[in-house]
Amino acid sequence: MKFFKQLIIAFLSTAFFTIQAQVHDVSWRNIIIKQEGSWFATQEAKAIAENVLLYQRNIGGWPKNIQMQKPLTAQEKLQLEKLKASTEDVTTDNGATTQEMLFLSKMYQATSDEKYKEAFLLGLNYILEAQYNSGGWPQFYPLKKGYYTHITYNDDSMVNILNLLKDLKDNTGKYAVKPSNETIKKIEISFSKGIDCILKTQYKQNGVLTVWCAQHDEVTLEPAKARAYELPSLSGSESAGIVLLLMDIENPSEAIKTAIKSAVIWFEKVKLTGIKQVWELDEQTKKRNKIIVKDENANPLWARFMELENNKPFFSDRDGIKKYALNEIGYERRNGYGWYTENPSKVLERYPIWKAKYDVTVKEKKSPKEEYNMVVAKDGSGDFATIQEAIYAAKAFPYQRVIINIKNGVYNEKVHVYSWNTHVTFIGESKENTIITFDDYFSKLDLGRNSTFHTSTLLVEGDDFIAKNITIKNTSGPVGQAVALSVNANRCYFENCALYGNQDTLYTAGEGFKQYFKNCYIEGTVDFIFGEATVLFDGCVINSKSNAYVTAASTPKGQEFGYVFKNCNLTANENVTDVYLGRPWRTYAKTVYINCNLGKHIKPEGWNNWSNKEAEKLSFYAEYNCTGEGYKPESRVAWSHQLTKRDAKKYTLENILKSNTNWYQNL
């Protein structure tokens, strides 16, 4: 135990002044959630996996706050072998056990090595055994004396467990390990008990359901105290994770619906506006200090702890005395703990979509005045308040075009135009003020190697779709793959639209599909226009936000056209100086720029082979009659092309977009 305690002390000494001391160091977590699937088959991953197996106790779980990727000496490995039989400090707190199980699942998927599957199933058995009859889980199992025995929502401990069980029982594909049918039945029972516990612990304030405490007594289910500064209270942070879990349950019971709606009402009621927390540098001590300042434009905040009786935010030092202003507690706790959160904003963003799907009373009231001409308005003056509601109401495979007029407003929702919603048109009131936005990204969804394709803010799968005067955003920031618009449909047209994102802003899918973007604005960082469809970009502004690649075409073999940019203006943010016109996502990629103005940020060589020499022979990258400081045909890579006037003549709208209909002539 001396060795293990030394590991914990070493970790705590480095993590003491992190923004939120109870949160697991992000480096180990990032390895699990951000690495590509192929990495898990590497020797580096296998070396880390050996550490993970060493740290796992015979009971099935892991201690917390261990940086599994750090190399171990022979002596350290020997000490860990001796600790195998110990049950001390085995926990699900700070993501422990659930995150190691996810890592092992990815290792098993990449290598098919049975030892990873066996370790995963041992962890699963640990989780099932640790559950109370009431449905909750303690922070440590076997039970550790003190507040650790309480049912623990703190730091999403119980939510992490239930999300794991849900993915396994629903076979979502997140986990490569498939438990036996007998185990699946146990998981289903365990999950149901867990949800029942959540419903029973939702706190009633003067007879009205609100949200949850970070801890609840394992016997009475009442709000409970943890550490001295973690007093019984309503939680703005942990409650958000609970509601998001409940929203993911298909065909929810009336009790679950009531729990969600009650929590949303409470979140709206207690949100704090006009303030934000910032860090200032104390000139005397040279230390950072967290303060609260006024800012009318700040995003809403929620307090971590609020009074059970009246929702009043409070703070506490290690003496356990309540204070009602952050600056009233000492420096260490003020700066070493997360007292505010924005997490409930994710609930409020998703709620309209969930409500449209599951609130039957709302659906019964909502029907458009005209079946083929609907109005969406956030203020309730239209047929629907959300875009998705209008899509749900649209006829399948209609005989005439369905027009959805969208009034100005910021629509925080994931929008899905289904394959049966053909001939749908979105017409925004104005491009500048009609905005669809969401913030999904690869590691947030964490659905496996293809998570990118689930991140889109707007997903179009219905053929003959049209959008005009609309802005579509993925606001997740520079966090990896995050799609704003995904078009997996044929004969689609976008005019005067703006697409904002970072990596992978626009995905144009569908072998043989034809898509047309006219007078649009598209911005991003890495490969922000990618896919296999034939796409004409006409008169568009293509803005690079970082030194990277504009396009990553995956044109199928034998397809005549890939990406064609005509009369476009390629611009860049300040300090962006090295951008490639494209690189081949697949070997037969085709991308052509005609009559375009290329800014000085375009690299002289123009194109990149993505470390694929074969692509130099089989891809087709070309330019014709372009202008601007970035147009340097004499410096381009030898395997690219400069079209002749005769070559360029075939790149007409009719040739590029032709299909079995003359769809492009009536736009």
TrEMBL record:
Record's keyword terms, sorted: Aspartyl esterase, Hydrolase, Lyase, Signal
InterPro entries: Pectate_lyase, Pectin_lyas_fold, Pectin_lyase_fold/virulence, Pectinesterase_Asp_AS, Pectinesterase_cat
Pathway note: Glycan metabolism; pectin degradation; 2-dehydro-3-deoxy-D-gluconate from pectin: step 1/5
Keyword Hydrolase belongs to the record: yes
Reactions this protein catalyses: [(1->4)-alpha-D-galacturonosyl methyl ester](n) + n H2O = [(1->4)-alpha-D-galacturonosyl](n) + n methanol + n H(+)
Enzyme Commission designation: 3.1.1.11
Domain Pectinesterase catalytic: from-to ranges: 373-659
Residues forming the catalytic site: 527
Enzyme class: hydrolase
Family: Belongs to the pectinesterase family.
Descriptive protein name: Pectinesterase
Species the sequence originates in: Mariniflexile jejuense
Gene this chain is encoded by: pelA
